[in-house]
Design a protein that fits this description.
This protein has 481 residues and is an all-alpha fold. It folds into two domains: 401 residues, Up-down Bundle (Growth Hormone, Chain: A), CATH 1.20.1250.20; 51 residues. It is built from 19 helices and no strands. Helix 3 packs antiparallel against helix 4 and helix 3 packs antiparallel against helix 8. The chain is globular. It starts with a helix and ends in a 13-residue tail after the last helix. Pfam families: MFS_1. Keywords: Cell membrane, Membrane, Transmembrane, Transmembrane helix, Transport. Its main location: membrane. One of its GO terms (cellular component) is plasma membrane. This is MFS transporter.
Length: 481
């Protein structure tokens, strides 16, 4: 194939992968706007309402490592297409759900197939754009979509809920899947890890059950951090994850080679990604509730109310992409969380009768700037220096950190919200004011988490600019066919 044909096809493959990234990211939030309507129609309990969000991000995050390794061994294009097709079917099932159980199960199935789809897409991106300026451009596109996808989901969810039905927040994925499936067949090239490949079954079992137990334990914290069930599931999760590390250190072909996370810089990037996920998924959920439940916004207005953060991210990320080679990742990763924390702290000042433009908008602008500093930098840094054989596992870890952070964030923030709201009601505070007190507490907790992310950057993200962002990565072998 001539270079003239190969180059356009490479950018068309980026378009296909970017579309997939958009679907995966926005699906964590697109149903958020629709939750009040879905809860009313299906008679969901508050716990079921939380699990409509948690089921997706939990299953997604817990199975990402396994999905990444399957993509490496089975073939990344093949895994991409199967994951995309399954995701579309699960979305259709969710859109047609007749009760809360069916909806939660469908969301879990979406997470399962997304766990195969997402690492395959990111690994395909990594091997298609192996080095140089084109790689930076490709990751910038992924960063913009990753940064704006959650907010786009909120806006799209508002439009669909307002003018059609909450069900179309799930059914719309079928359209994206059809386009992505056709594009994937036409423009993606198959690649897989070299050498003998064998799945690490015991590693897959322990990490999946460990992460699941950990997140479920956090979800039980609403009933009390000291309850036997909460402590039991958290302890079980921690123990299984320790066992997972032991297994990975001893098997010949581990699900997650410890060398991927043992690197100080990459390990720090993964930790920061988890914090970003907790804030992006958890805090955004409660801001949406404030818009609809306290301020009385219609779904469309509630979605549009988030657009400020999206616009800021879209404007700032391209500028920061050009700035990154000049200043290096470390300053951005230290300052970004602090700017985001300032925005969240500002949002904690919301009141039941407050004005969006004075109480919310400045906080969203600051949060958008802070997140912009993190998205492209973290994703690129987390994959820098990864051997071709480990591309799928590293890509999966990037996504898993974000999703598991998000699922833990939803659970922890829910516990914080419920505790503060209950205490406010017990002191005679009216209901809307009690809701607002709970939301404010969530934003304060999220701000503290972002400050912790900045501390992680100070401790872990060390090295010269050239070490952290090498200009020429080792070429990645691509197997065609």
């Amino acid at each position: 194939m001539s270079d003239a044909l190969r180059l356009p096809n490479r950018w068309l493959s980026l378009a296909v992968l970017a579309l997939t990234q958009l679907v995966v990211v926005l699906d964590a939030t697109i149903v958020t706007i629709a939750l009040p309507d879905a809860q009313a129609e299906l008679g969901l309990s508050d716990l079921e309402r939380q699990w409509v969000v948690t089921a997706y991000v939990l299953v997604f995050g817990a199975l990402l490592l396994l999905g990444g390794r399957i993509a490496d061994y089975w073939g990344r294009k093949r895994a991409f297409l199967v994951g995309l097709l399954g995701f579309g079917i699960a979305s259709a099932l969710g859109g047609l759900a007749q009760n809360g159980t069916e909806l939660v199960i469908a969301r879990g199935l979406q997470g399962l197939f997304a766990a195969l789809l997402a690492p395959a897409a990111l690994a395909l991106l990594t091997v298609t754009f192996a080095s140089g300026r084109d790689r930076n451009t490709a990751f910038a596109v992924f960063g913009i979509i990753g940064g704006s996808g959650a907010a786009v989901g909120l806006i799209l969810g508002g439009v669909l809920t307002e003018f059609t039905s909450w069900r179309w927040c799930l059914l719309v994925n079928v359209v994206f899947v059809i386009l992505g499936f056709i594009g994937g067949i036409l423009y993606l090239r198959e690649s897989r890890a070299e050498g003998e490949n064998r799945l690490d079954i015991w590693g897959a079992i322990t990490v999946t059950l460990g992460l699941g137990s950990l997140v479920y334990g956090f979800s039980l914290a609403e009933d009390g951090w000291g309850s036997a069930n909460t402590i039991g599931f958290l302890a079980l999760g921690a123990g299984l994850l320790v066992l997972f590390v032991v297994i990975e250190s001893r098997v010949a072909q581990p699900l997650l080679p410890l060398r991927v996370v043992a690197n100080r810089v990459r390990g720090g990037a993964f930790l920061m990604q988890a914090v970003v996920g907790s804030v992006l998924i958890g805090a955004t959920l409660y801001l949406t509730f404030h818009f609809q439940i306290v301020l009385g916004m219609r779904p469309l207005m509630a979605g549009l109310a988030n657009v400020a953060m999206t616009i800021v991210i879209l404007l700032v990320v391209p500028f920061l992409t050009k700035l990154l080679p000049t200043v290096g990742p470390r300053p951005l990763l230290i300052a970004g969380p602090l700017v985001g924390a300032a925005g969240l702290w500002y949002l904690s000042g919301i009141t039941p009768g407050g004005n969006y433009f004075t109480e919310v908008l400045p906080g969203l602008v600051l949060l958008g700037i802070g997140l912009s500093m993190l998205f492209v930098t973290l994703q690129n840094l987390a994959l820098t220096g990864v051997a071709p054989h480990d591309a799928g596992a590293a890509s999966a870890t990037v996504n898993a950190a974000l999703q598991i952070g998000g699922s833990i964030g939803v659970s922890v923030f829910t516990a914080i919200y419920a505790g503060v709201e209950q205490r406010s009601l017990e002191t005679g505070t009216d209901m809307l004011a009690a809701f607002t007190d709970g939301y404010s507490a969530v934003f304060i907790a999220a701000a503290i988490a972002m400050v912790a992310a900045s501390v992680i950057a100070v401790i872990f993200i060390r090295g010269s600019k050239s070490d952290l962002l090498p200009q020429n990565e080792h070429p990645v072998a691509v197997h065609l066919g």
